[in-house]
Structure formats: C-alpha cells, structure tokens
Write a structure and sequence with these properties.
The chain is built from 7 helices and 7 strands, in the order H-E-E-H-E-H-E-H-E-H-E-H-E-H. With about 200 residues, it is of the alpha/beta class. Strands 1-7-6-2-5-3-4 form a 7-stranded mixed sheet, with helices on both faces. The longest helix is centred in the last third of the chain and has 19 residues, at about 185-200.
Length: about 200
C-alpha cells in the first residue's frame, strides 16, 4: 500500500517535471525473480525507475542512503536493500537471493555508484556473481537525463526530460554450465554493461 502511494506521488512529478519517456517495459517478465541492471546517474534514478516498472521492485543501494532524511524514508518505502560497498556484505547478498527466489524483482546498479560525468562507468563483478548464483534473467536498462535533472552532488531538482529504456532480458543460466567459474562473474557483468551501453547509444 505504502509502495503504491509512493509511486503515485512520484508519477505526478515524473509527468510534470521530467516528461518521462519509457520504452521496452514489455521486456520485463511479469512474474518470477528477475534483475533490472541499470546505469546510475542520479538519486532520481530510484524513484523514476520505480514509476517506470510494471512490478513492485526492491532496490539495492549503499547503506549510507538509508540515513539521509527523506531519501532514506523513500528508499525504505520503495523496498530498498542496504548493502555495504566496503566489504563482501553476505547479509545483503542473502537478502537479495531470498527476494529473487521468492519471485521478486531486484534493481541493481552495476557501476556501484553514480557516474560523476554522465558516462557509463565499468561494471563491478558483484552483479555477475548475483546473476550466476541466482540463475535469474537480467533486463539491461538505460537511464538518460536524470544527471541533468538532479546532478550528482546537488539536491536541487530541475525540470529536464528523462528517458528510460528497457532491453531484452538476458538469460545466462543457459550458458552457465559451459562457463568455468573463474572469470565468469566478470564476463557476465561485461555483457550486461555492453547491452546497457548499446541502449544508451540507441537514445
């Protein structure tokens, strides 16, 4: 209920201030565990992605976000999962796996942080590990415009068009038996990042 109310409020701002354009939402499986892997430009990515999805989502974010007034509250309402980026956060990983196994949709930003210049940063192998261990499909996702609407380091929101593009789902479970464990996480991550880059270039 609280999630729906939060998304409704976000929808008003999304249409009024950001003239948001969404494409490829039909690529998101309507049920079952699935991972949305998106580039990360701004704190606005979280609420605007939640508005764009056709399902309830759980967002993975750095632990520090949860202590920021308003942002932390919103993040909890949107099903946020706190993760400590300074170490292998086994508790957070277990929660992510549990959510995926229970048929939930998880949003991950493979770059691990917001891009400082709007350019796609290298992905971290953690997303590859989660994909390999869960065996769930991944929907590569490109976000454009949020860095102009709310730049990194600023809390001022400016009206600016935002585009969110969902790609075809990737199913690594088909090829996993053929891929040796060593280096598999990095290769899965790189393929996801290549798909995100292609979606960004298509915009």
């Amino acid at each position: 209920m609280l999630y729906s109310i939060a998304v409704f409020i976000i929808s008003i701002f999304a249409r009024l201030f950001f003239r948001i354009k969404i494409s490829g939402v039909e690529n998101i499986p309507v049920s079952g565990g699935v991972i949305i892997a998106a580039n990360h430009l701004s704190y606005l990515d979280i609420p605007l992605l939640s508005y764009s999805l056709n399902r309830h989502a759980n967002f993975v974010g750095k632990r520090q976000l949860f202590s920021i007034p308003v942002v932390g509250t919103m993040f909890r309402l949107l099903g946020g999962i706190a993760i400590d980026r300074e170490k292998i956060d086994r508790a957070a990983l277990r929660e992510i796996m549990k959510k995926l196994d229970s048929g939930n949709l998880i949003v991950i930003y493979p770059e691990g942080t917001r891009s400082p210049n709007g350019i796609l940063q290298p992905g971290r192998p953690g997303v590859g590990f989660i994909v390999r261990m869960s065996g769930k499909k991944v929907v590569p996702t490109a976000i454009q415009g949020t860095d102009k609407a709310m730049p990194s380091g600023s809390w001022l929101i400016r009206p600016h068009p935002v585009t969110i593009r969902f790609g075809k789902p990737l199913d690594f479970s088909v090829n996993l038996p053929k891929v040796e464990k060593q280096g598999a996480d990095s290769r899965i991550t790189q393929e996801i990042m290549d798909k995100i880059a292609a979606l960004l270039e298509a915009g």
